[in-house]
Amino acid sequence: MTEKNYTEAMTRLEEILIQLEEGKKSVDELSELVKEASELVKLCKTKLKTTEEDIQKAFEEA
Amino acid sequence: MHNARSISELNQLIQQVLDSELDPVYWVIGELSDFRLSPQGHAYFELVEKNGNKIQAKIRANLWQFTYRNVATRFESSTGTSLKNGMKVLAQVAINFHPLYGLSVNVKDIDPSFSLGERARVRQETIDRLTREGMLQLNSQLPIPGVIQKIGIISSATAAGYGDFINQIESNSGGYKIYHKLFPSLMQGNDAVKNLIQAIDSAEKSKDLLGLESIVIIRGGGAQLDLDCFDEYELAVKIAKCSLPVFTGIGHERDDTIADMVAHTKLKTPTAVAEFLLSGFREFEERLTLASRRMERATKLKIHEQSTIIQQFSQRLQSYSRNRLIQEHDKLNSWLLRINTSSKNMLELQQLKLENLEKGIRQNTTRILTKETEKLENKSHWLKQLDPKSILAKGYTRTEISGTPIHLTKAKVGDEMTTHTLAEKINSTITQIEEE
């Protein structure tokens, strides 16, 4: 499975949130969802950080 | 028999009558015809009276050597021309009857003033006729090129004027080249007019082949005599109607000839014609030089102007480019700033969104877990409450028949029951059942 890009990750996070808000998921599924969400959050944070660094670098060069 | 005489006697009689009845001399007007000079220097001719072209009367005339020399010299110096056929003269004559040669006149004198007047009258008639026929300005209306380089020369190859003319055009200081072709012609005498007309015809026929631009008629140097052919009507018409401009250099001191009058341009001498042609070259060269200088000046000026304009353009372009670069740089900086800000904002927004999502996920997870825990606790509580021990602890007991709770079975008398208390198991047998 290829790594998601930021937009895809955010979309997935939103889906997870909606699913959690709806409260239809069992406790057994909850763990998996939270684990997935945590991975996605980590991914998005990394991407944001990388982007910020890129921007910083780009402006330093400009 | 008749009183017959011999011819000699008759002639003698005639001689006597003539001598007695006639004056010694008479002034008569007649036209010279069949004029010829003998080797001895005598002139023989006929004096003719004409009505139009028709001869009405004529008489033989003799001009003996001595008289001829005097008369001819005086005539030539007065009129500028020699005695010749077709000339009307006022002559003083003595009647002469010779037994052998018959009747003739001996010319004693010729009055040049009559011939001058006569010639002037004829000349004026010719001019008037040419004027009426619109011939005088005809040839002069032809355009001439600024530089005339190809000419047809009508002259006598042996004429001094021709030699001078050729010498002048060929050894000019400017090194100008004039192509010339001679169309030879007699330039004086009885056949001159016919000859000149033929020469003009020949030149016109060669015009296209040789690219001739003009015809020059030159006759120069030497005696100022026998110019009458240049006053002839036929020659004047030929010159006037010539398709090429005709320049004359007939070389004379007296008034213009009629040929001069009908020519495009009249010049005094062949040398003057050569000078006129060469002056065209010189003027053209001067104009060229002048034009060249003007062009050079104008070009330099134009180049200078254009250089200035280009320099101005260059400066404006540089200035504009600098301004533009500054503008673009500013714009870029502003964009960079905006991009920076926007990207930061976006990142922050995303960060917030992510945090919210994370928070939402946490909260919901917690909520779910809490809810589930509560449910679990409730269940546990209920379970605890439902635990038989806790009921038994309150003093309640549980009775079963054959392992089935008593309220779930039909008790009968005699059935054995097991009663559970918190601490004990009591077996009993049903002895009586009463309805409640």
UniProtKB/TrEMBL annotation, chain A:
<keyword id="KW-0175">Coiled coil</keyword>
<keyword id="KW-0269">Exonuclease</keyword>
<keyword id="KW-0963">Cytoplasm</keyword>
<feature type="coiled-coil region">
    <location>
        <begin position="13"/>
        <end position="40"/>
    </location>
</feature>
<comment type="similarity">
    <text>Belongs to the XseB family.</text>
</comment>
<dbReference type="InterPro" id="IPR037004">
    <property type="entry name" value="Exonuc_VII_ssu_sf"/>
</dbReference>
<keyword id="KW-0540">Nuclease</keyword>
<keyword id="KW-0378">Hydrolase</keyword>
<protein>
    <recommendedName>
        <fullName>Exodeoxyribonuclease VII small subunit</fullName>
        <ecNumber>3.1.11.6</ecNumber>
    </recommendedName>
</protein>
<dbReference type="GO" id="GO:0009318">
    <property type="term" value="C:exodeoxyribonuclease VII complex"/>
</dbReference>
<dbReference type="InterPro" id="IPR003761">
    <property type="entry name" value="Exonuc_VII_S"/>
</dbReference>
<dbReference type="GO" id="GO:0008855">
    <property type="term" value="F:exodeoxyribonuclease VII activity"/>
</dbReference>
<dbReference type="Pfam" id="PF02609">
    <property type="entry name" value="Exonuc_VII_S"/>
</dbReference>
<dbReference type="GO" id="GO:0006308">
    <property type="term" value="P:DNA catabolic process"/>
</dbReference>
TrEMBL record, chain B:
<dbReference type="Pfam" id="PF02601">
    <property type="entry name" value="Exonuc_VII_L"/>
</dbReference>
<feature type="domain" description="Exonuclease VII large subunit C-terminal">
    <location>
        <begin position="137"/>
        <end position="427"/>
    </location>
</feature>
<keyword id="KW-0378">Hydrolase</keyword>
<dbReference type="GO" id="GO:0009318">
    <property type="term" value="C:exodeoxyribonuclease VII complex"/>
</dbReference>
<keyword id="KW-0963">Cytoplasm</keyword>
<dbReference type="GO" id="GO:0008855">
    <property type="term" value="F:exodeoxyribonuclease VII activity"/>
</dbReference>
<dbReference type="GO" id="GO:0003676">
    <property type="term" value="F:nucleic acid binding"/>
</dbReference>
<dbReference type="InterPro" id="IPR025824">
    <property type="entry name" value="OB-fold_nuc-bd_dom"/>
</dbReference>
<dbReference type="Pfam" id="PF13742">
    <property type="entry name" value="tRNA_anti_2"/>
</dbReference>
<dbReference type="GO" id="GO:0006308">
    <property type="term" value="P:DNA catabolic process"/>
</dbReference>
<dbReference type="InterPro" id="IPR003753">
    <property type="entry name" value="Exonuc_VII_L"/>
</dbReference>
<protein>
    <recommendedName>
        <fullName>Exodeoxyribonuclease 7 large subunit</fullName>
        <ecNumber>3.1.11.6</ecNumber>
    </recommendedName>
</protein>
<comment type="similarity">
    <text>Belongs to the XseA family.</text>
</comment>
<feature type="domain" description="OB-fold nucleic acid binding">
    <location>
        <begin position="6"/>
        <end position="111"/>
    </location>
</feature>
<dbReference type="GO" id="GO:0005737">
    <property type="term" value="C:cytoplasm"/>
</dbReference>
<dbReference type="InterPro" id="IPR020579">
    <property type="entry name" value="Exonuc_VII_lsu_C"/>
</dbReference>
<keyword id="KW-0269">Exonuclease</keyword>
<keyword id="KW-0540">Nuclease</keyword>
